[in-house]
Write a structure and sequence with these properties.
This protein is of the alpha/beta class. The protein has 14 helices and 18 strands. The chain binds nicotinamide-adenine-dinucleotide.
Amino acid sequence: MTLTVLEPATERVLAELPRAGVEDADAAVARAKAAFGAWRAVSPPDRARLLHRLADSLQLRHEELAVLEARNAGKPIADARGELGMVVDTFRYYAAAPERALGDTIPVPGGIAMTFREPIGVVALITPWNFPLTIASWKLAPALAAGNTVVLKPAELTPLTALEFERIALEAGIPEGVVNVVAGPGSTAGARLVEHPDVAKVAFTGSTEVGRRIAAGAAQTIKRVTLELGGKSANVVFADADLQAAAAAAPSAVFGNAGQDCCARSRILVERSALDAFMEALEESVEALRVGDPLDEATQMGPLISAGQRETVASFVPPDAPVAIRGSAPDGPGYWFPPTVLCPVEPDDRAVREEIFGPVAVVVPFRDEAEAVALANDTIYGLSGSIWTRDGAKALRVARAVETGVLSINSNSSVRVATPFGGFKQSGYGRELGPHAVDHYTEVKTVYYAT
Ligand code: NAD
């Protein structure tokens, strides 16, 4: 059985690969289990050196990997370069972790208690197609730094950079069996990893629907689970904001990666008194967005990932949809969809409530601060969001009131290697990136020493 990998900008076949199934998942877990003892025993400075060497090798292959990611995921080459830069930075950041795996000493009667952070064992990493190697690196780097061995199952639509990564890791000196990639469907290879008794933890990024299934499946063997799931984030624009700046930044915050971004600020909430001025400025910036060939340096938005994804996105924009702004998109082959802004919309509209995962935004007016917070929180999700205002106290009040894991004020940027990332509510649990991610790849052990 083969796995046919397409290039979404041309609909041409990019690669034909063996399709991994249940037996391949079992074999990968067996390799990871066999490699665990020796990998956890590698001394902290040596493990740190190996992670730095891996970062060096990824840096050397940066351009090649960026082009592969741009072609396979249909993302603009400039974005792919930035993402691959983050992959390298993520390995460098967590290369410091082995030597900082600190424990506590706790005074207790009759002796001393101390804590150790132990690796968990074999960790399954299950990742989506929107930021393939980037999201994998957020899991790989802390998992390996903590001394675990891993089985990575990339999304079947975008497995190419993960397979390259497996080769690069070996070349960089990571011992055989420590990093294993299984390129196969979620329903077979993925589901097997979730139920496998020798997998100690599943770190998952993907849809909330599949996340629910993974949490339920992992419960059978009490696996540790972290979930990074969907979002429907609010971009709250107050009338006292720099409206030009907010409108200029809004398109990339929802149409970046063709809207296939869990952090997409796809609900733009605008204070009613500023609505007309904001919409005028927004129209200008949406129409200026360059949509086209991902390998063209000037491109800002590429195609959607697949024909199926385009069908799903199109279902949110039926012929009678209230389209206020529509950008451009190429004709011909490729899964293109123009950036689209819907307004006015009702709070119960599907486009307002569901994660669209495509270049479709809704604009919803609000009356005052209290209504802005209520609207922002009126969702099952809680991943990301933005607040635009010149009033610092209001910005902080709203930031504390919005139920979401990552927020930005007068900016739409909130994902950084050094800061925690993850969701509230049905956007998941656990945190990636930043100093705390390693905690999710270790167990705390307490040892009491009688004196
Ligand atoms: P998906 O949930 O369909 O698939 C994600 C991964 O899970 C894939 O590798 C898939 O093969 C696998 N999978 C599917 N069914 C499985 C099963 N039963 N058992 C085990 N594995 C299974 O998601 P997608 O369509 O690839 O990605 C889009 C979704 O991911 C969106 O909802 C988006 O918001 C979310 N996402 C979240 C984040 C975040 O960090 N919170 C980041 C990116 C994407």
